[in-house]
Write a structure and sequence with these properties.
The chain is about 30% helix and about 25% strand. It is of the alpha/beta class and about 160 residues long. The protein has a single domain, classed as YbaK/aminoacyl-tRNA synthetase-associated domain (YbaK protein). The protein binds 5'-O-(N-(L-cysteinyl)-sulfamoyl)adenosine (5CA).
Length: about 160
């Protein structure tokens, strides 16, 4: 198991989550690839997206079926929202794009959870690398990420 995945396992266990991580031979870098590998709907894949809110990194956990509406994130944060670049994502989270998990970050990130994820019994999030994911209930994800559930979907 890669060190990045081990950091996610440790954080899950510390949070009392027993989910097993699945490492695939194929890529789970995008929501579509992850859904195909898992055999779930793309809506059940959790995208972990980093944005800058007046320059401070924040995390949005968004359904793979949705595009995030930055105006909604701006309203929630009360800040101007810009996209984080790849280097900023790595510095803020400790992980590279395509494998960014919803927890276990290098820095504490204010986190928002797309309310559309709450319709599913189980969702799947990245586990530190572009071919590792883990299943979790939306309620557990909200709890371990310390997330605020809001509407984030672009119409
Ligand atoms: N492992 C999958 C599913 S769990 C995953 O990590 N998906 S993701 O959506 O959370 O991560 C990929 C996202 O990173 C893309 O949706 C895109 O929004 C963002 N991204 C891709 N390339 C860049 C880039 N160069 N700079 C900033 N963000 C990027």
């Amino acid at each position: 198991m890669k060190a990045a995945v081990e950091r996610v396992v440790a954080a899950l266990r510390a949070a009392g989550v027993t989910s097993e991580i699945t490492e695939f031979a194929e890529s789970t870098r995008t929501a579509e690839q992850a859904a195909a590998a898992v055999g779930c709907t793309v809506g059940q894949i959790v995208k972990s997206l980093v944005f800058l809110a007046d320059g401070a990194s924040v995390l949005a956990l968004v359904s793979g079926a949705n595009r995030l509406d930055t105006a909604k994130l701006a309203a929630a944060t009360g800040a101007r929202i810009t996209r984080a670049d790849a280097d900023t994502v790595r510095a803020a989270t400790g992980f590279s794009i395509g494998g960014v998990p919803p927890i276990a970050h290098a820095t504490p990130l204010t986190t928002y959870l797309d309310r559309d994820l709450t319709q599913y019994e189980q969702v799947w999030a990245a586990a530190g690398t572009p071919n590792a994911v883990f299943p979790i209930t939306p309620a557990e994800l909200e709890r371990i990420a310390g997330a605020r559930v809001i509407d984030l979907a672009a119409e």
